[in-house]
Amino acid sequence: MSLITRRKFATLAGLVTVSGVLKPGWGQSHAAEPPAGKAPVKAVAKEAAPTVAAPAAAPKVDRSIASPEEIWNDLIEGNKRFTSGKTAPRDVIAARIKTANSQQPYVAVLCCSDSRLSPELLFDQNIGDLFVVRTAGHVADPIALGSLEYAIEHLHSRMLVVLGHEKCGAVAATLSGEAMPTENLTALVEKIRPGIDRLKGLVQGETLMSLAVEANVHYCASNLIEASPIVRHEVAAGKLTVVKAVYKLGSGEVLRLGGNFSEGASASKH
Ligand SMILES: [Zn+2]
Fold first, then answer.
1. What CA–CA distance (Å, rounded) separates 199 from 216?
2. CA distance 252 to 249
3. Cα of 193 to ligand 1 centre, how many Å?
4. Which of 2, 6, 26, 128 would be 181's cystine partner, CB 3.0–4.6 Å?
5. C-alpha angle with apex 31: 29 to 33, nearest 5 degrees?
6. Where are the beta strands (DSSP E) in 115-168?
7. What's the gap in Å between 209 CA and the centre of ligand 1?
8. How far away, in angstroms, is 52 Cα from ligand 1 center?
9. For residue 58, what pLDDT is reported?
10. CB atoms < 10 A from the CB of 71, how many?
11. 135 CA to centre of ligand 1 in angstroms
């Protein structure tokens, strides 16, 4: 494939940077050296910030026993803090110490690798709250599936969120129908294609892109249940809830797909 094709895919999928030349000095220490002949400026001690009442850090419900609705509402509360810019102060030290020897991430997330889609940030979560598996287009190959099965079987995750996002490059690359430059990238789009091909010719432009993103989420969620005996068994037993959702890049909102926690086809706000 031509360089143009490769770069076009990279731009679409957001997988590869086009230029890799480091500027001189990158990677060097950022410790400031005073100019010759001048004494270093002493750091001015800052006064301690006044203690203010801060919103409690997530999660606010006991996810080991909470209902799927309560767990999801707790996640959406975090998303609202994120979209409003009022995220809870994260005590990462306490969370790190608490989880050093064990973890109980009751929520697993399968989402795209896109750099704009960070589950911990957009749900305002802390260390140990989410078990996250990320691939371009949130395609679940056997390794990704195995990772999720580990979370469900071994770590007892009770909710699995399949999270797509607006303007997903992997979905756009698949829709383009262009040949991919490597076998690996071909394998990626071929995993996405069956879930979105039926839309081509029915709608165009942004509508096609938006519906394809949702279709890819539904397709991936269906594949999870079909391909994983653990997911299938836990869902059937009522011990695991699969939630499908789409992230809005501009507003930061997470919109759940469907009217309840098991079925549904259209986006509904929270
Ligand atoms: Zn994506």
1. 11
2. 5
3. 14
4. 6
5. 115
6. 130-135, 159-165
7. 12
8. 38
9. 57
10. 24
11. 8
Query: Hey, what are 3's tokens?
Result: 């360089």
Give 68 Cα–ligand 1 centroid separation in angstroms: 26
Of the CATH numbers 3.40.1050.10, 3.30.70.20, 3.40.50.450, 3.40.50.200, which one belongs to the domain with range 57-262? Answer: 3.40.1050.10
More confident site: 177 or 58:
177
Q: Which helix (H) or strand (E) segment is 108 a member of? A: strand 107-112
Calpha distance 116→94 (Å, rounded): 27
pLDDT value of residue 259: 62
DSSP label of 246: E
Cα 20 to middle of ligand 1, angstroms: 22
Print burial letters for 134-158: b (CB count within 10 Å at least 16), e (below 16).
Answer: bbbbbbbeeebbebbbebbeeeebb
Sign of the dihedral defined by the CA atoms of residues 183, 189, 193, 199, in that order: negative
Per-residue model confidence as pLDDT tens digits over 230-268: 999 999 999 999 999 999 999 999 999 986 665 433 334
| Distance of CA 78 from the midpoint of ligand 1 (Å) | 22
pLDDT-wise least confident of 21-30, 217-226, 235-244? 21-30
The tens digit of pLDDT for each residue in 79-138 reads 999 999 999 998 999 999 999 999 999 999 999 999 999 999 999 999 999 999 999 999
Q: Which residues contact 57 (CB under 8 A, 6 or more apart)?
A: 88, 89, 90, 91, 126
| Local confidence band at 222 (pLDDT 50, 70, 90 cut-offs) | very high
